[in-house]
Amino acid sequence: MVTGKERRLRRLFGADGKALLIAVDHSLTLGAVGGLSDMGSVMAAAVAGGADGVVTHRGSAAHHMPAQRGTALVVHLSGNTALSPQPELKTRVCDPEAALALGADALSAHITLGGGSAEDRRALADLGSLAATCDRLGVPLLVMTYVRTDERDPGPAVLHAARVAAELGADIVKAAHPGDAYVAELAATVPVPVVLAGGQSEGTWEAFCESAKAAMGAGVAGLCVGRRMFGAPDPVRATAELRAVVHGEG
Ligand SMILES: O=C[C@H](O)COP(=O)(O)O
């Protein structure tokens, strides 16, 4: 028997078990800035460049996501805006059923730990409840993990938050790059596929691709990249190059 989650996960991951996801959820937080003023073009570029999936909010999914075989739709259920004093503390902004009605192949939620006692408890409770809903609906849950920490070395906290997400039912965990010394441990200690965020466009494109290649070699299952892709001079080419890194092509 193949479960709904397994069937949908195969739409997201290639036969090699790897995935390049393009994340374009930033316009809820920041507005239509930094390459996201024309969301239709960004999504078309993700598809044309060979992304395995696109992660976005329900409005962009409905209005701009091409119905393209081979590119999965991951609807992001969490949000807050930069107009808030604590934009990193998200709330649920879309129901799982509404996302499935849009044709979602997977759902995505954001969790920030270290945001405060009450905020952390609320985030954990919400994640537990959402994971149970995803189990019931047979839809994979991607959890984007973030930490607020004053530690000079955030690596251990990044690993902890990633593990928390898996413990609470994530089927895929997204984490920030924890630092070269921690990537293999991250991949080995989280019992579900881990994808790494792209982060801010600091450093050269070549250095970013080299770092991503090394992370793939250390065992992560892929990338979930936003700004590095839609802020690139040629987003189609950027997507294709990242696809090659993730799937070991070329
Ligand atoms: O939602 C955010 C993405 O998963 C990562 O975005 P980023 O590559 O711009 O850090």
From TrEMBL:
Signal peptide (UniProt feature, chain positions): none
SUPFAM superfamilies: Aldolase
Active-site residues, record numbering mapped to chain: 146, 174
Name of a matching Pfam family: DeoC
InterPro entries linked to this entry: Aldolase_TIM, DeoC/FbaB/LacD_aldolase, DeoC/FbaB_aldolase, FbaB-like
SMART domains: DeoC
Name by which UniProt lists this protein: Fructose-bisphosphate aldolase
